[in-house]
Amino acid sequence: MTRREYLSKQKEMGRNLIGVFPAYYPKEILWAFNAVPAEIWDPPLEIAGANAHLQPYICSVAKLGLELILQGKGDILDGLLFPHTCDSIQNLASIVYDYLGLNKPCYFFYHPKAPYRNSSRTYYLEQLRSFVSRLEKDMGPLDGGELKHRVEQGHHLAAILREIYDLRSQGDFSASNAEFYRVIRQGEYLHPDDFIPLLEGFLGRSKGGDGKGSAVILSGILANPPEILGLLDDLGVRVANDDLLNCGRRLLMEPGRMEDPFEALTANYFAMPPCTTKDSPLDERVNDLLKKIEKSSTKGVIFYMVKFCEPELFDVPQMVAAVKTAGVATLIIDVDLNQGLSGQLTTRVEAFVEMIS
Amino acid sequence: MNSPYFAGVDVGSLSTEAMILDTTDEPVSYSIIQTGANSIDAASESFEKALAKSGVSQDQVKSIVATGYGRISIPFADKRVTEISCHALGAYHLFPDTGTVIDIGGQDSKVIRVGDGGKVLDFTMNDKCAAGTGRFLEVMADKLQVSLNEMGPLSLKAGGEVSISSICTVFAESEVVSLVAQNHPKNEVIRGLHRAVVNRVWSMIKSIGVHGAVTMSGGVAKNSGVVGLIEERLGKPIHVHPEPQIIGALGAALLAKKNFLRASP
Predict the structure, then answer these.
(1) What pLDDT does residue A254 have?
(2) All domains of chain B, ordered by start, with CATH?
(3) Are B238 and B263 in contact (CB under 8 A)?
(4) CB of B253 closer than 8 Å to CB of B65
(5) Alpha-carbon distance B86 to A69, whole Å?
(6) Residue B1 predicted with pLDDT over 60
(7) Tell me, what's the pLDDT at A49?
(8) Is residue A39 classed as helix, strand or coil in its secondary structure?
(9) Closest CA to A244 of A215, A214, A275
(10) Average per-residue pLDDT in chain B?
(11) How confident is the model at residue B265 (pLDDT cuts 50, 70, 90)?
(12) pLDDT at B178 over 90
């Protein structure tokens, strides 16, 4: 079933569909409102109209998201959510909300940036409550029991994902790179009632593996074009872990076990790995990446950049230097989304694999 | 049994090279042809020409490694290896003190850090754009109505230098047209173009760092003007083989031998 077919079915079931721009938002709250968040990262579209609204130096995540709206491909959605991820997404929110005259509710979610203080937690808690108040205006009152259930479901989902990632990093997970990310990324639009059984089945059939081949880690925003994963499969290279914004960086490490679901969600936010879009200190990011490298005996890190992604590009030189100092090879790739594998990109990846093999 | 021979075929965007090696790693013959529109035909033709020159029969060639952008489509190759690994190994074989390779080819440029045995330790490569590569110089030579081979000697005779503000082939072409219209001496324009190429590759050199002796490979290494400006910037001489285009094919042939020996009992 395609993503669109799935979302249509969800709508038929009476669920609201909320298009969500990257990256951090409390999806459990949307689930509790019987809504399905459908994340917008890299819709497979040709950028045409978006170029009239955005500068040439804006990343293709923002451009493709706007293109989706301009081409009417988001008509199925009941609303849009713009987390405050970066300046580009923030400006996109302004263009869509203030200028396009879209006949859909737009929601905004402002998560705190590092360095964190006690007031950051209070602020986040207030943002959660304010987000709920805004949603209640369109979707009716929130059922507190349902929110608690969805928070627990989110913890269960995170536990399965952690187990999959742990097995993967130890070489005990047999799925190919392409299959691994195809399944994991379905979490960007599947309702948890569907995603959890999918992940459990995936875990069951993929447990075990020979751990052969060189291991690499991907760092960046998202692995697109997906052909890059197939190329690594063909070259016998295993992506043992990732520091990708759409995947590993949103992996909940220590779930908040508080009785109050808002308190638990707040704890969850601060328990996620460090990230450029949260202004995490560089040393936290370096330590997190070095830990991943050590845990998975990685020989190389591929910094997979989306062109013009400012938050990410600011950290790259220091991240590369730290990884090289640790004796691990690095490769920087800078791409526009959905551009396919060029000959030069293929050569770079192949040469990198030859270098670490 | 006759002595085995090994071959490397480097299918680049503009030229294709084939190299035949014997068991002592000595080049027996090589050929350089234009790639044209069909990389498989170019690979076959180049290989056949190298065979014909060597007097070695195809049966005697026991292992063939293909490299270059066209490597994936060469049907008679036993193995495919990137030009980055092949240039590193070829340069190290010719100049064992090589620590850095600058390869400026037809449509891309690379800077490679080379370690013991010719192993790649790090590298950088230009992106999709062919700015500052052989193709850039070819377009400019055409616009200035000089041959590619004349560009180096002409630029060395320049009394001054005209600044070229763009390295983009399209924009630089317009700029050259304007400079010619303003009666700037041709050799000064060429020197400016060479400077633009060197500026482009210099940022790549800086990102990898200069380690050990520097060897330049690829067709642009035949341009004495570009080589001179790189040496000036580095503050030291660089190694340039009389046929810098064959270094990739040489590396591929060396890997073919290694491949054969590894597979043989």
Answers:
(1) 85
(2) 1-95+246-265 (3.30.420.40), 98-240 (3.30.420.40)
(3) no
(4) yes
(5) 47
(6) no
(7) 94
(8) strand
(9) A275
(10) 92
(11) low
(12) no
Single-letter amino acid, residue B222: K
A3-137 CATH: 3.40.50.11890
Instruction: Provide the 3-class DSSP secondary structure of residue B22.
Output: coil
Q: What is the ipTM of this complex?
A: 0.89
Predicted pLDDT at B122: 96
Q: How confident is the model at residue A281 (pLDDT cuts 50, 70, 90)?
A: very high
Tens digit of each residue's pLDDT (9 = 90 or more) over B203-241: 999 999 999 999 999 999 999 999 999 999 999 999 999
Q: How confident is the model at residue B106 (pLDDT cuts 50, 70, 90)?
A: confident
CB-based burial, A277-298: b 16+ in 10 Å, e otherwise: bbebeeeebbebbbebbeebeb
Q: What residues contact residue A306 under an 8 Å CB cut-off, 6+ apart?
A: A59, A60, A61, A220, A221, A222, A224, A312, A335, A336, A337
**DSSP code of residue B96:** T
Tell me which chain A residue has its CA closest to the CA of residue B72.
A343
Does B213 reach chain A within 8 Å, measured CB to CB? no
Nearest residue, CB atoms, A354 vs list B85, B108, B126:
B85
Structural element, H or E, at residue B33: strand B27-34
Q: Which residues pair with B98 in a beta bridge?
A: B213
Residues in contact with A23: Cβ distance below 8 Å, sequence separation at least 6, in sequence order:
A83, A85, A245, A246, A249, A250, A275, A277
Give the strand pairing for B15-21 and B79-80.
unpaired
For chain A, the C-alpha Rg in angstroms (whole number) is 20
Name the residue in chain B with its Cα closest to that of A351. B82
In chain A, residues with a C-beta closer than 8 Å to the C-beta of B85 are 351, 354-355
Q: How many residues does chain B have?
A: 265
Residue A18 burial (CB count, 10 A)? 25
Task: Judge whether B173 and B140 are in contact, CB under 8 Å.
Answer: yes
Pair of tokens at residue A205: 């059939």
pLDDT digits (tens, 9 = 90+) for A91-104: 999 999 999 988 89
pLDDT beyond 80 at B127: no
Cα distance from N-terminal residue to C-terminal residue, chain B: 15
CA angle A26, A229, A65 (to 5 degrees): 45
For residue B105, the chain A residues in CB contact (below 8 A) are none
- Give the integer Cα–Cα distance in Å for B17 and B250: 9
Residue with tokens 């370096």: A286
